[in-house]
Each structure stands twice: as C-alpha cells, then as structure tokens.
Amino acid sequence: MKPVRKLGVWRSSGLRVLASLLVLTVVTISWVPVRAVSGASVKSPRVEDLSPAPDSVVPFGGASLGLHALTSPKAPVVGMAATPDGKGYWLVASDGGIFSFGDARFFGSEGGTQLVAPAVGMAATPNGDGYWLVFGTLRPLAGKIVGIDPGHNGLNYTAPQIINQSVWNGQQDEACDTTGTETDSGYTEAQYNFNVATYLEADLEAEGAKVVMTRPNNSGIGPCITTRAAIINDAHADVAVDIHADGGPADGRGFAVLEPVADGPNNAVIASSAAFATIMRNTFLADTGIPVSTYDGVDGLQPRDNLAGLNLTTGAKVLIECGNMRNASDAAILVTPAFQKSAAAAMAQAITIYLTGQTAPTS
C-alpha cells in the first residue's frame, strides 16, 4: 500500500494574493450562505497602544478604521477583506467565522459548521455586497498532538556521569540513558533516530499536527528516559512514538514494534497502544520493504515491561526498532536518507491511520 499522500497547505499573504487565488481552480471557493458567526466577542483596544495583540487589526497610513481585536475567538484569524469604499472590513477565522467592522455588512459565515478543510482567506465582491471564502486543502491531523522521542543523543558518550545515573523506569532502576548502538562503519543510532524524527516531524506538521519532540538536535546530552516520557505526557499527546534502531545479533535482521505492558501509570492505554502497534507494524512492513525482525518479538510485535518510555506513558505509544545496525544488510539500508525518509513516511501514515480511523494495511 502506498503511503498517504501528504497534501500541501496554501497560505495567504495579503489581499493581492487572495485576489489572485480567485482564478485558481485547484482551491475550493464557495459563496457563503447565511450562518451564525464564530462565538467570539469584539473589543476595541486603546488606539494609542499599537503593540499588536493576537487576532487583532492595527491601522497604518491612511486606513480610516481604528484598532480592533477579537477576544478568545474559537479559531485563529487567517485573513481579511476591505469594503470597496474603505469604510469597513471583514475578518475570517480558520473555522469560517466572519467578523464585520465599520460599514461592512454581514452576509453569513461557516462558523459553527464542521469543515473538512480550514478557511485560509477571503475577498470582497467589487461592489461590496458579498464576499468569497477560500478553503485550503485537507489537514487530517489538525488539532492533534503527536509526541516523538528520538532515542539517545549525539553527545551522550561524552557524559557518562550524567547518562549512567540511576532512574526509576516504572518497574526497576535503569540508567538515565545510553549512547545507543552504531553500524560497523561508525554511523550512530542517535543520528539515525534524529534524522527520522526530523523527517517525521515535517510530515506530521504538513498534515496539521502539533509535534512535540523530546530533544531539539543531535548535539546534546540526554534528557533522561524518564524526562522524555514526562515531556510527551505533559503535552497530552494523542499518540507518540519512540524511534530507535537496534543493536542485535549480527545474523539477525528486521524491525520490531515494542508495546507497553500494564504496570499502573500506563494501564489505561494498553489497548490503544496495542492497536497502534499493529497499525505501525503493518504500515512499516508494507511501505519500507524491510522485513519484520527475525530475532525480536513475534511477527514484528513485542510487549516490553522494562522501558521507561512505555512503562510511564499516559497516552498511546510504541517504540519502533527500525532495523538492526549490527546486521550488514540492515545497516546498508538504515544509513541512507532515502530509507530514513521512507521510514518517517510510514510512521506518519500509521499515525494518521490511528488518529483518523482510516483503514490500515494488513500484514
């Protein structure tokens, strides 16, 4: 099965761009029926305070209308359009809600309607007796939070006094972190994990997700495995993945998806994690071409009760060992950007399938 096609999202940058969009046939443009506006109040900040507030309009030059802002709109403002005489304007929020100012008349909105794609801008008719709303492409993960933990870190090997500290992983004492494994040529697992995580982050953000990473680069130390779990838990991630590559026996190859075993903190997410693990296994197998592990788990799935990321999770989570860096065949694949991008795309597809209820590939 091919990965879910990632759709780009058009962004407006002013009325000039909005006007040009009206002639494009690839973007959905709709005349707005009469509907209720978004549920947000309008306030008039002090004109002398020109520090822009969120979801606000600040006049410059010959703009005749004063400063306006919205209080707690249901969705962020994404565009505006002025009346032809310049005596009023409309604001549009991403949920299609319309807010009128000055002499601009209200003609309806999509506020309160369940949209399949967000509003990205608007334009007024030449005579000011209506407006068009522009809707962008579908972002299936809009409003979702995804946690990504790229295992280890690039400089862990320089600080044994830190990474060898003992932490409680939910079941037993364990080292704060490790250096991870590497290929025979010296390509590190930490670098692989971070590369894939970065590609995955970009894929997920293109689908509208908010992504929480446990480390921002591959040139640091830690954080400890318990801190990584807490970062994702505190973000209230809807789903999360810990990215690794294994250091298994040289004659073994393939990937395995590890899932949590109930231990108290994670009791409520065992079933959801197991469902996510199956989707991840099926998608990764179908889309990357790498086989399931010949030495770890059964058919690519393995419950584990000795990993802090899985023991301490409060949301659906899996850990994926993307291949065996100690196996020559796997190593030759794992180090390539092409495979790393493919691995990230497969993970993104699995996450999208899990969060949207799409049909997953079968093993």
Which short descriptors sum up this protein?
2 domains, disordered N terminus, Aminopeptidase, elongated, single chain, 8 helices, 363 residues, six-stranded mixed sheet, alpha/beta, three-stranded antiparallel sheet
Task: Describe what this molecule looks like in 3D.
With 363 residues, the protein is of the alpha/beta class. It folds into two domains: 15-135, no CATH class; 145-356, 3-Layer(aba) Sandwich (Aminopeptidase). It is built from eight helices and 17 strands. The protein has helices spanning 15-21, 160-163, 189-206, 225-234, 270-288, 308-311, 328-334, 337-356; strands at residues 28-31, 41-43, 56-57, 68-71, 77-82, 88-93, 98-102, 119-124, 131-135, 145-150, 166-168, 173-175, 210-213, 239-246, 256-260, 301-304, 317-324. The strands form five sheets. A six-stranded mixed β-sheet has the order 13-10-14-17-15-16, sandwiched between helices. Strands 1-9-8 form a three-stranded antiparallel β-sheet, with helices on one face. Strands 2-4-3 form a three-stranded antiparallel β-sheet, with no helix packed on it. A hairpin with a 5-residue loop joins strand 5 (77-82) and strand 6 (88-93). The longest helix has 20 residues, at 337-356. It starts with 14 loop residues before the first helix and ends in a 7-residue tail after the last helix. The relative contact order is 0.13. Mean pLDDT is 87; it is low at 1-37.
